């Protein structure tokens, strides 16, 4: 295939202005804070501080994401069928951002002195409300990113901006570890009350930016203008979406990646505290975890543009294999780098993994609009909202299952919160073993599955050429 720059240069009409990419990417700051904070701080606050059984917490984390996932297809159908002068997505993005910020803060404002079941039910109820608000924001937000350009490479660029800017939100999550371990707070739980309110304000502020300053590509707007569009039923839209084999491969890769990562997400905290620090929760612990998180985010911000450039030369799938390989290497390094002899070595695996994982999600999200093009060629309908919703549904269902299992993985290792710093040697060993090997196995399987993905660059460009010719014939775009 001819890969000359002239042949594959992005047309000026398909280029998204820098400021618009920045505006869209800013919303990912809110998304990342919402998606990560509950998972990362549920165990430190509700288990380690308040004494709630980790199995109960895993059911809250998993159950709330199942609830979140079940509402996604409905939200996808709502946004696909919305018609307003602000477009199909942006009114919902604005509403979701405001509701999410308020409800996130509420999770951590629990009353003092509750029983174990009292804290459990507080976390359960507030999480269900929060993740409903998160759905209202996340589904139209993800769909909007698919509509900002119709060019194969420019779509990757839009997702790269989104991924890089998401790391600013990740900085905030990492900084929470430092904040809640400050001596001025009586406990991490007290620190989290204040951190939750500050993060809620950040969610609202950053979430509103794409609602006001990002918009769909001109061709999408032109298709909507002056045209009565029949509403697409939820059942029909869902059925036709899950028929596309390339999309099913993307979904399967997503599930494998999430299974490996989320099953051990809680173990990172416990391995650090009880293996590296012997159970002592000192300010140095908070500093190390904050530095580790920030270092990973800096690496991500540097790696994504490089891998995005590589994808212009070897395509999305080839670059995705490289990114997954980095993730496997980074996970394997956990066994030797998480060591009490030199705590700072624990930063290294996160640095190696983060670049690979960020590029992985960037490229996977950039591949979904290509499937939307294929679907439009077959059906004549564009369903970015439904594809976004089903992908989000798969993402969250995979995450939910993995999070439910994660509490049991911690228990299977032999960890007992009542033992404090006196954890058994076997418990430490199995926590480390699960933490290291589970992601290596599942990500390796995802790499094998990627080899079956059929929509390479040449095929995508053929589809887009056919779509352009059909739209010109129908008069939906200027010839």
TrEMBL record:
The chain crosses the membrane at residues 92-113, 119-139, 160-180, 192-214, 245-272, 284-307, 319-336, 348-372, 393-415, 427-453. Pfam families: MFS_2 (PF13347). InterPro entries: MFS_2, MFS_trans_sf. Gene3D superfamilies: MFS general substrate transporter like domains. The keyword Metal-binding does not apply. SUPFAM superfamilies: MFS general substrate transporter. Signal peptide: none annotated. Keywords: Membrane, Transmembrane, Transmembrane helix. Belongs to the sodium:galactoside symporter (TC 2.A.2) family. This is MFS transporter. It comes from Coraliomargarita algicola.
